[in-house]
Amino acid sequence: MKQYRAPLLLAFAMIGIAVLSIFEIVPAEVAQYAPFLLLVLFPGAWLRDRNSCNLLKRSRA
Question: How many CB atoms lie within 10 A of CB 26?
């Protein structure tokens, strides 16, 4: 379950910013670039790390 927390939090943050933009709490210009900004600020959520599953690596479970 640990490997799904960061991507899910990133997705919820993106959806939250979009919803706040609909209700005009966040300006549309900010909400337009917010997903890219979140990806830059939290690269570990979408880039692989050394602890991720590797199907090509043959190891015993």
Answer: 17
Q: What is the phi/psi pair of residue 47, to 5°? A: -95, 150
The helix/strand/coil state of 27 is coil
pLDDT of the residue at 54: 57
Distances (CA, A) of 55 to 16, 40, 44, 59: 34, 27, 20, 10
- The length of the chain is 61
User: pLDDT tens-digit profile of 16-51?
Assistant: 999 999 999 999 999 999 999 998 888 877 776 555
pTM, two decimal places: 0.69
H/E stretch holding 56: none
Helix axes 28-41, 2-22, angle to 10 degrees: 170
